[in-house]
Amino acid sequence: MVQAREHWSSKMGFILAAAGSAVGLGNIWRFPYVTGENGGGAFLLIYLAIVFTIGLSLLVAELLIGRSTQRDAARAFKESAGGAWPLVGYMGILTAFLILSFYIVIAGWTVAYTVKSLTGTILASGTEEVGAVFTGFISDPIEPVIYTAIFLALTVFVVLGGVASGIERAARYLIPILFIILLVLAARSVTLDGAGEGLSFFLKPDFSKVGWDTFLAALGQAFFSLSLGMGAMITYGSYMRRDDAIVGSAASVATLDALVAVLAGFVVLPAVFAFGAEPSAGPGLTFITLPSIFAQMPFGAFFSALFFFLLAIAALTSAVALFEVVVSYFSAGDPARRKPVTLWVSLASFVLAIPTSLSMGVWSGYTIGGKPLLDALDFFTNNITMPLGGLLIAIFAGWVLRRQVVQELGASGTLVGAWQFVIRFVAPVAIAVILIAGLI
Ligand code: PHE
Ligand code: NA
């Protein structure tokens, strides 16, 4: 017997859950440093343009595939077209699992840094000292693994609660908290002496710095940030009711995700400039540059703890989404299987997370393609399987999906026409370009 599929409790519930999936480390840790590396304002503009064209169109496509079939990422393809298409779903499920296994490691660091902000052990003056503290922490064989386990346990707790009373409920509480913390931190940062320079870096486009690679960076960032190309939004779409509206909700999710990225820019960049640090410091901007800034601020320990707590919350609702992609597939729509499947998936991801964590320290000598395991997983998913998944999903939605399903979008003819133009031509070409450029 087929059990009734779980559903979101309301339109708002869906928007918050999907925003929880989208808003993550990608917005608060990754977006500010990628913006810093790519020259500021011009990057912001290009990023927003991509989010609301290609990004939004692909988000609509994934939700439609999920909603029309009411199935997980692999069965959704089987049900709507068959053939080799379910392979796209399997690749997505594998991608979700691989991302999960390094995402929980980095998320574990954010939990550790929340605690360590309060005990003051990470707040040294000078980026060199803070850098040494960070390297010392991530290369310890035991401590980061324990924090990964703590974060994983929180994720499992939410996923075990199910779709409406676990995932949606967590987002209902955590997303508002996240916005409040972001606003407090942004208000602190933009009122620092010397914040103006950071603000103009972020908001004044300087197109002389724009190159081919600016577009590539923006497209990759938009993809990761909106959780596209790996079936997360197909899975969340499959928990919508068949008559739930897609286009408006997708626009809300994209807007919330962009808003959090922009607010994170307001938190990080003015502070970086006010304290004379380098905006192009890369991934270390959050874990190295920021603690050295917090150390120089009044009540710095408090703001530091608040910032890393914010990151941990954002990461939690995203890790839940990655988990759900895998759990949804293996439990095959049977609610009775959610619990055992969740426990097995958590065990498996922990098993992969251990060497991933150790690859930052004692096992850094073992590399894959010249990279430690953590970077190799990041590279493989971000540069290969996610864009490839996105490309195939766009082709599927644009050229394979039956017209009758497309009509279920329920939007005006002009809107559907615009969506089809982007999903058939613009998105496949643009994604094919990043995919190839990313490999060479
Ligand atoms: N969108 C999340 C972020 O910005 C990452 C993510 C990717 C989550 C894919 C779920 C699925 O951090
Ligand atoms: Na995001």
TrEMBL record:
This is Transporter. Its main location: membrane. The keyword Membrane applies. It is found in: Membrane. It holds the Pfam family SNF. The chain crosses the membrane at residues 13-32, 44-66, 87-109, 145-167, 174-195, 215-239, 251-277, 297-330, 342-364, 384-401, 421-439. PANTHER family: TRANSPORTER. One of its GO terms (molecular function) is symporter activity. Belongs to the sodium:neurotransmitter symporter (SNF) (TC 2.A.22) family. It is a multi-pass membrane protein. The keyword Membrane applies.
